[in-house]
Structures are given as C-alpha cells and as structure tokens.
Design brief:
By secondary structure, the protein is an alpha/beta fold. It has a single domain (2-66), classed as Rossmann fold. It contains 1 helix and 6 strands. It starts with a strand and ends in a 26-residue tail after the last strand.
Length: 92
C-alpha cells in the first residue's frame, strides 16, 4: 500500500521518519505531501496531485493521512465558567 502523509516536514523529522520505518517494515511505501507545495485534487480526468511543474496521476497513494502538529507558540485559555473545573472566570 502507498500511504500519503500531509506534512510540511521531510523524513528527517522524527515522527515522519518513524512512520516511514513502520510502513517499510510492513511492506508499504510512504509519500510525503507538503500542502504548501502540492495539491490533491479530484477532477473529471480522475484524481491527481499537482504542484510546481509536475502532476502525478499514476502511482497515487491508496490513502492520505493528515498530520497536525501542535503549535509551539502561545497557548490560549478557553473561558468556560459554566463548566466546573474548565477554563477560568474573569477575576479569578
């Protein structure tokens, strides 16, 4: 099986490298798809991956998994005073 992974990082990024290692161990292949460089599409001609100066319409992934990493920036607190134990109320 060819597994597509939506990610902005390469195989040097530990989680992606680990996914690749596990996929290969089980006889599968990984295809990293950077959503800022490539676009997955469904058109009348069929599915494809487009970006830059090339289009991939053959040997497409069998499945595409989204990867969402946690931001390393500021963490926001949700203000939900009606739910005990969650969030905070102004003035507390």
């Amino acid at each position: 099986m060819k597994i597509g992974v939506l990610t902005i990082h390469g195989l040097g990024f530990h989680p992606n490298g680990r996914l690749d290692q596990a996929a290969r161990y089980r006889g599968h292949r990984l295809m990293l798809i950077n959503p800022y460089e490539l676009i997955c599409s469904l058109e009348n001609q069929g599915p494809g991956i487009h970006g830059g100066n090339h289009t991939v319409t053959k040997d497409l992934p069998d499945v595409v998994l989204p990867r969402q990493g946690s931001p390393m920036g500021r963490i926001w607190v949700c203000d939900t005073p009606s739910v005990p134990g969650h969030g905070h109320s102004p003035g507390q």
